[in-house]
Amino acid sequence: MSFSRLSTLVALALAATQLVSAAVPKRVTCADGNVTANKACCALFPIVATIQEQLFDGAECGEEAHSALRLSFHDAIGFSIHGGKGGGADGSILAFNETETAFHANGGIDDITAGQFPVFQATGLTAGDFVHLAAAVGTANCPGAPRLQFMFGRPPPKAPAPDLTVPEPTDSVTAILARFADAGFNPQEVVALLSSHTIAAADVIDTSIPGTPFDSTVGTFDTQVFLEVLLKGTSFPDAGNTSHPGEVLSPLRGEMRLQSDFAISQDPRTACLWQEMINDQTRMQTQFKAAMAKLQVLGQDTRKLIDCSDVVPVPAPFKGPITFPASFSQKDVQQACRQIRFPSISTVAGPAPTLAPVPGS
Ligand code: HEM
Question: Which residues are listed for Ca(2+) 1 binding in this entry (predicted)?
Answer without folding.
Answer: 75, 88, 90, 92
